[in-house]
Amino acid sequence: MSIAIAKNESIAADHPVVVEDRWLSARKSLLQHEKELTRLRDQIARERRALPWIQIKKNYVFDTPEGKRSLADLFDGRHQLLVQHFMLGPDWEQGCPSCSFMADHVSEGMQLHLAHRDTTLVAVSRAPLEQIERFRRRMGWRFKWVSAFDTDFNQDFGVSFTPEQVEQGEVPYNYTVQAFPSEEAPGISAFYKDDVGTVYHTYSTYGRGVEAMMGTYVLLDLTPKGRDERNPNWPMDWVRHHDRYEQAPAAASQPKAASASAAAKGAAAGAGGCCHAQD
Fold first, then answer.
1. For 262, which of 26, 193, 258, 276 could close a Cys bridge (C-beta 3.0–4.6 Å)?
2. What gap in Å lies between CA 266 and CA 85, rounded to an integer?
């Protein structure tokens, strides 16, 4: 019997088991809280849409497989643009596993649905385009991914930092100044382009806000074991690039967590768990 099975049996042994009437009563009580959360989420979405905008006046030019493109060009003829700030630094051999976890959710179906809501989604990294394309081919992704290598885009949107900022523990991330383990950080930004071509920054989210792109978590939150993350300092230590997981039979044990030193080294090299423990 594997350790994983033994732990699962322990969870079942300790958990309340009741008759259906009592279960239904508890479920209806939880349903009220779920409805409260739904209404709160709708309210926050309204407040997010009501935020004032900032006009983009800097001419950001990105390297793309089609050549040089401006930020306005990335909208691809639509009014709304979502940017995944993907952690892939200029000297990294591969992208951040947690950012890759996010990108794995960007299916062709999602992109089609977004397009029908007047929205384009692209990934942006500071690595040179050749490096991005090499990693994208390895992962089999087909979404648009461009390089901000020759621009201040990443710095201006709070997802790239100098070595001195990291060393001094004074990184401007998630609307505060804090210590941070890497020169690159994750985020999602939203932009709007009006009919005359003016571009506005409307919203950015960082830290746990990037869970908006992690549909796997939404489903795991419905299960008895939930996310089953056991490392409070690095909850996503279980995440691997999708081509680096070992085979996962039903009774397989959890992947071994990396040591603290290995985690720090990996994050610095773009192979660690990023910084998703941040709120």
1. 258
2. 19
- pLDDT number for residue 11: 76
Helices (H), the chain: 3-14, 20-49, 97-103, 108-115, 129-139, 153-156, 163-168, 215-220, 260-269
Q: Convert the pLDDT of each residue in 1-37 to its tens digit.
A: 233 433 555 677 789 999 999 999 999 999 999 999 9
**Token pair in block for residue 206:** 């960082």
Closest CA to 189 of 35, 83, 94, 273: 83
Task: Find, among 252, 271, 254, the residue nearest to 262 by Cα.
Answer: 271
Amino acid sitting at position 40: L
Q: What is the pLDDT of residues 247-274, one digit of tens each?
A: 866 655 555 544 443 344 344 444 444 5
Token match 């985020």: residue? 187
Q: Which two tokens stand for residue 55?
A: 């006009």
- Per-residue pLDDT at 276: 53
Residue type, 65: P
Contact in structure between 111 and 102 (CB atoms under 8 Å): no
pLDDT of residue 124: 98
- Residue 279 CA to residue 110 CA, distance in Å, equals 26
Query: Residue 239 in 3-state DSSP?
Result: coil
State mean pLDDT over 110-133: 98
Q: In this structure, which amino acid lies at residue 105?
A: H
CA neighbours closer than 13 Å in the CB half-sphere of residue 4: 11
> Looking at residue 73, what DSSP letter applies?
G
Q: Tell me the C-alpha to C-alpha distance, in Å, between residue 258 and each of 17, 247, 265, 273, 275.
A: 36, 18, 10, 10, 14
